[in-house]
Design brief:
This protein has 13 helices and 32 strands. By secondary structure, it is α+β, with helices and mostly antiparallel strands. Strands 2, 3, 5, 10, 12, 13 and 16 form a 7-stranded mixed beta sheet that branches. Strands 7-6-11-4-14-15 form a 6-stranded antiparallel beta sheet. A 5-stranded parallel beta sheet has the order 19-18-20-21-22, with helices on both faces.
Length: 611
């Protein structure tokens, strides 16, 4: 190993605030020079933050070798991707083992930023860093503008589009470094992010998963009702899984809407780095609808751009699940039916499916048989007073009022109502996790005195425990769902059983169930007998309300109304208030603790009463 021994540092002039000096030393001939930063603090311990605008030519090299060394604790970011978090490098005596990374996969044409945070245990913090572009046997040091902050920077300082104009420029110094420690050069340059294992169908959430939703209007508007997140969180049980909605209405895979006052390419840069900043394990990506409707991007261009996004997220070790654009629904006159665009949308849905197949990614099809499946699920929920879908379809004619059925899903055929998201979310869960969008049914058979269910766990069954109750038992749904739970009395003598009503108790609150007479259809078994159903699952509804509160706080954290003043080109006016953005985090984390408890199905007591 190559040993790099420092001589004395030039001592910076003391001041009330931290002072930074940039120094360069020469090391062995087969390695590049390290650029050294030093921070002195008069009181307490020293810390430093700096940003390095890297020469974009490095993205054309065969590899890009980044070396970093410090005797303190450091965090390292490349184009928003965190590589190190408050890490202390390995020491042996007075030698520090430098770390090396090949960051080529994280670099791109255009703007590239390396960000470093260093904390020391004493009044001096020292950090050395370099990047070399490698072409065959040749290595060349990469330059670029460096800036420094003398105090804790606000949220987002690690990202490329952060406005650092008020940071001081780091100018090189001819002084030699101090005799603090020796450095051992890295043996190899490892990948910055380890590849993640492939998830297969049906998808399963894993403990510790952090999931982001990325897409356009369908994704962003899901926050208004939160059935999408609730339907997925309701399957996680005891697993710790968190979700973040990064949707942006009217967006495309080029992230044009996210540019705000900047060019579209900055919007794309911003989107990628915001995804990386969340450090997700899984990303659900849903694009293609706006590309089809605006005709601004041909299918081949769409596939190329989506592939570019997948490459960038793969470099961060993120598992990507592609979601097709959804089918648009017909609307009755006089509203022009958006369903006329479905032939164009189909092309982009197929392009998404093709890309997923070629890359071995999971794909969720929201186009094929989407509208019909919405109606079937709607009938599952409201089957006591609606016709089966196959009967309703017989009356569907152009201009027929029967098309009004779709108004319960969407007023304009494009943007879903809360009930529309209930049905659409059930389809997402069904096609992603293989959990059927069917009513959780508990079958009670008085003749055999049995209580059975494929969708729920049952315990403590007591038949006729006193003179007022026919039956009591406890049930626990296997998954939380927005669909009502049904208690069905079956068997040959089901109709002769004199049942006045059914109640289901959660904690101290007892809820009476409505009696329902289900129509016979292919969806429901014939001869089910008398059935009672909940209006909704109160635990699911409580979970949904928590998710609404959590996502409202998170929305204001990452998209504050005054974002231009906090982080943009008017930052010089109110940028000092950007420090308050991080104050949302404790409230979000507290809500997520409550969400984790509530997503685990609780035991509820069911009582059937005599007349």
């Amino acid at each position: 190993m190559t040993n790099i021994i420092f001589s004395r540092f030039f001592r910076c002039l003391a001041s009330a605030t931290a002072v930074f000096c940039l120094q360069t030393i020469s090391i062995a001939q087969d390695a590049p020079s390290l650029n050294w930063f030093r921070s002195d603090a008069q009181d307490g311990t020293a810390s430093a933050w700096y940003r390095w605008a890297v020469d974009p030519a490095v993205s054309d090299s065969e590899s890009a070798e980044l070396t970093i060394a410090t005797d303190g604790h450091c965090s390292l970011y490349v184009n928003g991707q965190r590589i190190l978090k408050n890490v202390a490098l390995r020491k042996s005596g007075r030698s520090v083992e430098a770390l090396g990374f090949d960051v080529k996969s994280l670099l791109r044409q255009g703007r590239n930023t390396v960000a470093v945070e260093v904390h020391s245990a004493d009044k001096v913090a020292v950090c050395g860093i370099s990047i070399s572009a490698v072409h065959g046997d040749q290595k060349s040091a990469v330059g670029g503008l460096r800036r420094m902050a003398s105090s804790v920077p606000p949220v987002g300082w690690q990202q490329t589009d952060f406005n650092d104009r008020d940071w001081s420029e780091a100018k090189p110094s001819a002084a030699e470094p101090a005799d603090r420690f020796a450095v051992t050069a890295p043996v190899k340059f490892a990948a910055p992010v380890m590849p993640t294992k492939v998830r297969t169908h049906p998808f399963q959430f894993e403990d510790g998963d952090h999931v982001v939703f990325v897409g356009a209007t369908f994704i962003e508007r899901a926050q208004l009702s939160e059935h999408l997140e609730a339907s997925l969180a309701g399957t996680c049980g005891e697993k710790h899984v968190t979700f973040r909605n990064l949707g942006w209405s009217a967006d495309t895979v080029s992230a044009e809407s996210r540019g705000i006052f900047d060019k579209p390419d900055v919007g794309y840069l911003r989107m990628v780095e915001h995804i990386r900043a969340e450090e997700p394990t899984v990303a659900f990506i849903c694009y293609g609808q706006n590309e089809a409707l605006t005709k601004g991007m041909a299918p081949a261009q769409y596939s190329q751009q989506l592939g570019r996004l997948l490459d960038e997220l793969a470099a961060s070790g993120i598992i990507c699940v592609l979601v097709s654009p959804h089918e648009l629904l017909p609307t009755p006159p006089p509203i022009p039916s958006p369903a006329r665009f479905n032939s164009e949308i189909r092309v982009y849905a197929e392009a998404t499916a093709s890309l997923a197949q070629s890359r071995g990614l999971l794909f969720v099809d929201l186009f094929t048989d989407f509208g019909n499946r919405m109606r079937e699920i709607d009938y599952e929920i409201n089957s006591c007073y609606k016709l089966p879908p196959e009967l309703e379809r017989q009356t569907d004619k152009p201009g027929d009022a029967a098309l009004g059925i779709y108004r319960v899903f969407s007023e304009n055929g494009m943007h879903f109502t809360a009930h529309g998201y209930v049905c659409a979310s059930a389809i997402v869960r069904e096609r992603l996790l293989d959990i059927p969008a069917a009513l959780p049914v508990v079958i009670v058979n008085p003749k055999s005195q049995s209580v059975e269910s494929d969708a729920a766990n049952v315990r403590n069954v007591n038949w006729n425990p006193d003179h007022t109750n026919l039956l009591t038992f406890e049930l626990q749904e296997k998954f939380l769902t927005s669909l009502p739970t049904v208690i069905s009395i079956a068997g040959e003598d089901a109709k002769s059983v004199s049942v006045e009503g059914v109640t289901i108790q959660s904690g101290d609150k007892a809820e009476p169930l409505m009696q329902r007479t289900f129509l016979e259809s292919k969806v429901h078994d014939a001869g089910r007998g008398r059935s009672f159903a909940t209006q909704s699952n109160p635990q699911y509804e409580a979970l949904r309300q928590l998710l609404l509160r959590k996502n409202e706080l998170y929305f204001h954290r990452w998209r504050p109304q005054n974002i231009t003043y906090l982080f943009g080109f008017r930052k010089h006016e109110q940028g000092n208030n950007a420090a308050d953005i991080a104050k949302f985090d404790p409230f979000i984390l507290e809500l997520e603790k409550q969400i984790h408890k509530l997503q685990q199905p609780q035991w509820r007591k069911v009582t059937l009463r005599f007349r």
